[in-house]
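User: Please fill in residues for this 210-position structure.
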């Protein structure tokens, strides 16, 4: 979302659009982070599922990224997130999720500290054509102790593997959910977020019982 100064001033005068206003019934808000390697579909997921116009920080890729960003498998990609994506979705009348999408490249990981502050959990998007780009992301989440679910984005030419095989390749504990996802589809993306909410509820119940 790119505004010049006059557009920003006009937007402030008008105030928020009706569809952007938080529902009066909302009583709880949860911060969720969407993470994954470069080009796995994070911006697409936030954009497809957000009930408000998403904020994106997409910039055209330049020569500065050559030799730094790994574009193997996504050579046709011409833009990249340089700060974050932001969206919002109401799970029900009371619960609202604020979605923060992170940049995928390692050179932007210094932003993670701020984006993860206060986050209840994360969705890790993976591309089965390039599973290796997810390894460092998963490792950083585990180091931070952030609960997460894994969503396998359904790219048209991506190979499909059994869940058990994916779990082994990603070295994930049995309890961590792995779900299919089409990041372009609102219902599919919403199902992923619901899976995360159920998983977080299970973890909270387990902790209370112990």
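Assistant: Residues filled in for all 210 positions:
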């Amino acid at each position: 979302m790119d505004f010049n100064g006059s557009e920003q001033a006009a937007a402030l005068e008008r105030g928020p659009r009706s569809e952007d206003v938080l529902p009066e019934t909302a009583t709880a808000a949860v911060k969720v982070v969407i993470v994954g390697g470069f080009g796995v579909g994070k911006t697409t997921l936030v954009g497809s599922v957000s009930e408000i116009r998403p904020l994106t920080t997409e910039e055209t890729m330049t020569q500065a990224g050559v030799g730094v960003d790994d574009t193997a498998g996504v050579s046709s990609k011409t833009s990249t997130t340089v700060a974050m994506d932001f969206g919002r979705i109401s799970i029900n009348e009371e619960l609202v999720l604020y979605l923060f999408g992170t940049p995928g490249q390692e050179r932007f990981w210094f932003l993670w500290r701020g984006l993860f502050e206060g986050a209840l959990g994360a969705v890790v998007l993976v591309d089965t054509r390039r599973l290796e780009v997810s390894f460092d992301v998963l490792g950083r989440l585990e180091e931070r102790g952030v609960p997460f679910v894994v969503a396998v984005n359904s790219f048209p030419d991506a190979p499909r593997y059994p869940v058990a095989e994916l779990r082994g390749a990603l070295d994930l504990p049995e309890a961590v959910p792995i779900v299919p996802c089409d990041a372009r589809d609102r219902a599919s993306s919403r199902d992923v977020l619901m899976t995360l909410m159920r998983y977080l509820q299970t973890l909270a119940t387990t902790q209370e019982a112990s």
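For context: Residues 61-69 have pLDDT under 50 and may be disordered.
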